């Protein structure tokens, strides 16, 4: 594979150093001094790369693997060819993610358009009343409004807009082209390119001459260590606040309506639409293109399959799928029955398939 000029390999770590960083165990101490520099999938891992496996389905790929180390659970050690060093971990997926972040720390946040550390670009527009702590970097053509406050170590990307009175915590990344209005942002928040936060929500009342706009005078509250993917939109509250809980990760192109209350450590996949005043508990996972009706409550730990339609409250801890969403086992059983019926309709009375 051609060398990736966007993210260069690490200068190198010994396997024993990597294992210690991961809180894992090196299976054979004879491999302690093997040097690794990068991460890669099993099917194209080469010398210097670390890969990982989660199941025995990786057996065939391991037979031709040239990695310098494989991260896996003890139960899968017998699959790894004897010449490949093994790092033992009870959670190989998480360990691999940590290894990737160690080798490529710059890839954990939006890429800086202006990589210099000169703090404030000459073309940036910053209102005199705005307060920036030391170490804030403002890239070219960014605009920061009156009385905004930005914490130490935060980077404001090129062409981004930070509205009046917005407060952004420390060590945040606001990528190029984002806009943040009517919002209070915690520490360690990552906002990717083109995100729109704090625009007015969708609220209208039918009137004698058409739709009358309902004012949206709430805020957006984003707690610590939230990550928001490119081109996602989060509307400000109508009269209450829209809240995104600590540690929640939101994919690209998600729409979150006004007054949504989202808990901690949720995972929301691309193109999900969440209508206004929905309450979402902690640790909820929502698959891509799911749609959620307004004013429903989703309990802690709920998992929602992709393309599902949520019309009613969902009890904590359940798995749901389909339109309308129902318990996942019921949905999968009904889907299997529909596939079976479809196959039967495709056969003629003689038992042969129609052309």
From TrEMBL:
One of its GO terms (biological process) is lipid A biosynthetic process. GO terms for cellular component: membrane. Residues 336-355 are annotated as: Disordered. CDD domains: LbH_LpxD. The keyword Ubl conjugation does not apply. Its EC number is 2.3.1.191. The active site is at 258 (proton acceptor). Transmembrane segments: none annotated. GO terms for molecular function: N-acyltransferase activity; UDP-3-O-[(3R)-3-hydroxyacyl]-glucosamine N-acyltransferase activity. Keywords: Acyltransferase, Lipid A biosynthesis, Lipid biosynthesis, Lipid metabolism, Repeat, Transferase. Pathway: Bacterial outer membrane biogenesis; LPS lipid A biosynthesis. It catalyses: a UDP-3-O-[(3R)-3-hydroxyacyl]-alpha-D-glucosamine + a (3R)-hydroxyacyl-[ACP] = a UDP-2-N,3-O-bis[(3R)-3-hydroxyacyl]-alpha-D-glucosamine + holo-[ACP] + H(+). The keyword Magnesium does not apply. Residues 33-99 form the UDP-3-O-[3-hydroxymyristoyl] glucosamine N-acyltransferase non-repeat region domain. HAMAP family: LpxD (MF_00523). Catalyzes the N-acylation of UDP-3-O-acylglucosamine using 3-hydroxyacyl-ACP as the acyl donor. Is involved in the biosynthesis of lipid A, a phosphorylated glycolipid that anchors the lipopolysaccharide to the outer membrane of the cell. Belongs to the transferase hexapeptide repeat family. LpxD subfamily. Homotrimer. This is UDP-3-O-acylglucosamine N-acyltransferase. It comes from Rhizobium leguminosarum bv. trifolii.
């Amino acid at each position: 594979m051609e060398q990736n000029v966007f993210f260069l390999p690490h200068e190198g770590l010994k396997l024993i150093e990597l294992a210690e960083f991961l809180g894992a165990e090196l299976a054979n101490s004879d491999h302690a001094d093997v040097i690794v520099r990068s991460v890669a999938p099993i099917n194209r891992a080469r010398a210097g790369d670390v890969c990982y496996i989660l199941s025995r389905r990786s057996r065939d790929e391991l037979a031709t693997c040239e990695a310098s180390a494989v991260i896996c659970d003890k139960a899968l050690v017998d699959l790894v060819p004897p010449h490949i060093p093994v790092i033992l971990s009870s959670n190989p997926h998480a360990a691999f993610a940590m290894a990737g972040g160690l080798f490529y720390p710059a890839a954990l946040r939006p890429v800086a358009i202006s990589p210099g550390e000169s703090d404030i670009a000459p073309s940036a527009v910053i209102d005199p009343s705005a307060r920036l702590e030391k170490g804030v970097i403002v890239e070219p053509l960014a605009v920061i409004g009156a009385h905004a406050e930005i914490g130490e170590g935060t980077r404001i990307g090129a062409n981004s807009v930070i509205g009046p009175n917005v407060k952004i915590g420390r060590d945040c990344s606001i990528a190029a082209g984002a806009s943040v209005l009517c919002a209070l942002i915690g520490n360690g928040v990552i906002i990717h390119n083109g995100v729109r936060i704090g625009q007015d929500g969708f609220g209208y009342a039918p009137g004698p001459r058409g739709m009358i706009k309902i004012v949206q005078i709430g805020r957006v509250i984003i707690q610590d260590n939230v990550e928001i993917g490119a081109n996602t939109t989060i509307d400000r509250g109508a009269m209450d606040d829209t809240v995104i809980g600590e540690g929640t990760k939101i994919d690209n192109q998600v729409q979150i309506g006004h007054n949504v209350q989202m808990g901690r450590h949720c995972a929301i996949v691309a193109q999900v639409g969440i209508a206004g005043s929905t309450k979402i508990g902690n640790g909820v996972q929502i698959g891509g293109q799911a749609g959620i009706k307004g004013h429903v409550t989703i309990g802690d730990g709920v998992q929602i399959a992709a393309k599902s339609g949520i019309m009613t409250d969902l009890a904590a801890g359940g798995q749901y799928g389909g339109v309308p969403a129902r318990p996942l086992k019921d949905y999968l059983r009904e889907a299997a029955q529909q596939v079976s019926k479809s196959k039967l309709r495709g056969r003629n009375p003689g038992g042969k398939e129609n052309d």
